[in-house]
Amino acid sequence: EPEVTQTPSHQVTQMGQEVILRCVPISNHLYFYWYRQILGQKVEFLVSFYNNEISEKSEIFDDQFSVERPDGSNFTLKIRSTKLEDSAMYFCASSDPEWGNKNIQYFGAGTRLSVL
Amino acid sequence: SQQGEEDPQALSIQEGENATMNCSYKTSINNLQWYRQNSGRGLVHLILIRSNEREKHSGRLRVTLDTSKKSSSLLITASRAADTASYFCATDAIFTSGTYKYIFGTGTRLKVLA
Asked: What mean pLDDT comes out for the span A64-89?
């Protein structure tokens, strides 16, 4: 069964450093998403991406965040200057553009980001 | 309650017993998903149920959906110690742009005692 894959599974970085989290969505999917889960809290929507541009973003997704689809298979989340409070699990998701499936998102296993 | 609110927040049972978790939501949905998460780990997809479905089964899992009450339940039968985890429901919500996001609940922490 096709799946969303995320790398690395755990990323450790120093405060102030830039970090890039990588995701490979399911191959025929065209909608892409990032979510965040701070330890002990809910999974929260960050951003959705379609047709090479951001469709929607939450108030969490400020100027230090950016997303990109650098090639035909990868989808990345960049945090420019990490803060301690960016420590969280980050989940990538994708969905099929076909009508009736667009609202079904498939999630990756997540990348745990630890900012020291 | 918030969209995708689970109850109870915590549940402790003996191995072999059944565990039932509930999820309530506020707005209309197209589908609802249940996930499991072990402490500090990623999401494991359990079951997706569409709004036109009332019940789905997968192994020892049974999910029901009552759209009139805006609620869903997850039943784990004959629980095992390995079922110890947090369980979340997630419901889809549409933006004005026509794209979707998922709204997750705070989860039920299930502890199965051996």
From this structure: 94
What does the alpha-carbon distance between residue B55 and residue B45 come to, in Å, rounded to a whole number? 17
- Please answer yes or no on whether A44 and B104 come within 8 Å at the CB atom: yes
The pLDDT of residue B2 is above 60? no
AA letter at B60: R
Residues contacting residue A105 through CB under 8 Å, at least 6 positions apart: A31, A33, A93, A94, A95, B92, B100, B102
Tell whether A89 is within 8 A of chain B (Cβ).
yes
Whether A25 has a pLDDT exceeding 60, the answer reads: yes
Interface check B101 vs A, CB under 8 A: yes
Q: Which two tokens stand for residue A8?
A: 């690395």
Tell whether A104 lies on the interface with B, counting CB pairs under 8 A: yes
| C-alpha distance from residue A3 to each of A8, A17, A95, B42, B74 (Å) | 15, 30, 11, 14, 23
Is B100 in contact with A105 (Cβ distance < 8 A)? Answer: yes
pLDDT mean across residues, chain A: 92
Residue A12 is which amino acid?
V
In DSSP notation, B82-100 reads GG-EEEEEEEEEE-TTS-E
Q: Under a CB-based contact definition with an 8 Å cutoff, are residues A103 and A34 in contact?
A: no
User: Do the bridges between strand B108-113 and strand B10-14 make them parallel or antiparallel, or are there none, so unpaired?
Assistant: parallel
